[in-house]
Amino acid sequence: TQLRVALHETGHTLLVLKFSEYFDLQKVSIQPTYNGAGGYTIFTEKPEVREGGLYTKDLFKKRLIIAMGGKAAESIYYGNDFVSLGAIQDLNQANNLAKRMIGNFGMGNNLEVFYNEEVGEDALARGFSMGKYSEHTKYMMDKETLDLVKEAYSEAKDILQKNREKLIEFSELLQNNTVLYKKDIGNNFL
Which residue among the candidates 9, 74, 144, 155 is catalytic per the annotation? Predict the structure, then answer.
């Protein structure tokens, strides 16, 4: 339904706005896309982040929280048992980013200096091969990846739960407008 899609995208959008030190919201829409998604939220890193290469663990964690915002918003509104399949793409995205954080960027708690050259964009597309690593390392990687995503989901739920009224209000605004740009939003959602 339109309400569900609006809530889902609102979850992403409010979190982008919350982390405005890193991200700029471009546009949010509840128009279905050609690939079957019910809607979409477009945001970019601020120019100073991109130009300065300031990709920190904190920034990536915030990106994970944003990715989990759709599922979190649906869960808050409909309950855990009624989250739609729309959240699958978000989960996929979040897990891939978390795998890269642990496997490429040394952002694990126990795997701080670990680098897995088999991760990375193309490796993720091929399927995640860990052939030459021990069972323990594979287990650690999976666990740390899952921990990052779980922590992000819980953080997303926490933030959106505290802003439940804004969640409802913004999703109504989105339903009435179908597409919203940053300039349409004003400051009442920051």
Answer: 9
* C-alpha–C-alpha distance, residues 71 and 169, integer Å: 18
Q: Tally Cβ neighbours within 10 Å of residue 114.
A: 18
Question: Are the C-beta atoms of 42 and 27 separated by less than 8 Å?
Answer: yes
User: Cβ contacts of residue 127 below 8 Å, gap of 6+?
Assistant: none
Query: What angle in degrees, to the nearest 10, is found between the helix axes of 57-67 and 135-162?
Result: 70
**Tens-digit pLDDT profile for residues 60-73:** 999 999 999 999 99
Amino acid found at 55: Y
User: What tokens were used for 98?
Assistant: 């978390």
Q: Are 153 and 72 in contact (CB under 8 A)?
A: yes
Write the pLDDT tens digit of every residue in 96-123: 999 888 877 778 776 544 545 555 554 4
8 Å CB contact between 92 and 71: no
Rounded (5°) CA angle 74-161-83: 15
How big is the CA angle at 10 (ends 66 and 85), to the nearest 5 degrees?
Answer: 75
The verdict on whether 9 is a catalytic residue reads yes
